[in-house]
Specification:
The chain has about 260 residues and is α/β, with parallel strands linked by helices. The protein has ten helices and ten strands. Helix 9 links the parallel strand 9 and strand 10. The longest helix is centred in the middle third of the chain and has 22 residues. The mean pLDDT is about 85.
Length: about 260
């Protein structure tokens, strides 16, 4: 089997983690123990297929790592496993109610069962990737994760959709991952939509990615500010599922026609 990057996140690299890492290597895969270094997680995210979060009693120290995993779990090419006692998992669910979609295992799980699950998961991820190869890819950048997840749900059947919740996260993501369209929130703290678009246009690797602004305000003055930045267009956040899905379909149809005519 081709080596796969599997990341193990935990406050302490104990006996269980060391034994699990050794057994994963024996299966021909490549585990990486990162502790709680969430900055390093961002650096290696494009190489990772599976994240294993091994819980401890101190769930509050996992906040930064779980914020990262909440982004990664949205990717159809990634899987997040959480290993913990029942009280520890309940504590995580209560402390981070929007951290959903992970696969959970008790600490009593056998290494054989865990490795079997990992192998099945990698096979499933590979099969899913093959089916998605011909789909257009979209990145949603919005500091409102609930809205971003909603739009992702609307689009995920027809496109490869990733989401991040901040401008600098978007820059880091795009420097390593190519997309066909960016849906960019115009009103964000720190690096707002205008700042992010300016940074993208200054970089040769990202300057040609089409940007469509998402905006919550539709008055004439606000719209003129958005249009003045020369995006491919803008979509009001009040738009319905049908309006957003149809807008994006027509956008790609127009680009395909232009490509065929050149």
């Amino acid at each position: 089997m081709e080596a796969e990057n599997i990341v193990i996140i935990s406050p302490v690299e104990g006996i269980f983690i060391r034994a699990l890492s050794r057994q994963i290597r024996e299966e021909g895969m490549e585990p990486v123990y990162v502790g709680l270094n969430h900055n390093y997680l961002y650096e290696i995210r494009n190489k990772v297929r599976i994240y294993i979060l091994y819980l401890s009693d101190n769930s509050h120290i996992l906040t930064a790592c779980i914020s990262f995993l909440k982004e990664e779990i949205q990717s159809p090419d990634k899987e997040v496993l959480v290993i913990g006692s029942n009280p520890e998992i309940v504590n995580i669910d209560n402390s981070f109610p929007d951290f959903k979609g992970y696969s959970r295992f008790e600490k009593t799980v056998s290494s054989k069962d865990l490795l079997s699950f990992i192998n099945r998961t990698i096979k499933s991820l590979d099969e899913g990737r093959e089916k998605r190869d011909d789909k257009k890819s979209i990145l949603i950048v919005d500091d409102d994760p609930a809205y971003a997840r909603t739009v992702r749900e609307w689009l995920k059947n027809d496109y490869l959709v990733n989401m991040v919740t901040g401008g600098m996260q978007a820059i880091r993501f795009l420097l390593k991952t190519k997309v066909d369209l960016i849906l960019l929130d115009y009103e964000m703290p720190a690096a707002n939509g205008a700042n992010v678009m300016e940074m993208l246009k200054e970089d040769p690797d990202t300057k040609d990615i089409p940007v469509v602004f998402l905006t919550g305000v539709g008055d004439k003055e606000s719209v003129m500010k958005v249009i003045g930045l020369k995006p491919e267009g803008y979509i009001l956040k009040s738009a319905t599922k049908y309006e957003i899905v149809n807008w994006i379909k027509e956008f790609f149809d127009r680009r395909n026609k232009r490509h065929l005519n050149t």
